Amino acid sequence: MSRIKVHDKEFEIYIPQDQIERAIKKVADNINRDFAGKNPLFLIVLNGAFMFAAELFKNVEIECEISFVKLSSYSGTASTSVVRELIGLDHSIAGRNIVLVEDIIDSGLTMLFTIEKLKKLQANEVKIATMLFKPKAFQYSFPIDYVGLEIPNDFIIGYGLDYNEHARNLPDIYKIVS
Question: pTM for this one?
Answer without folding.
Answer: 0.90
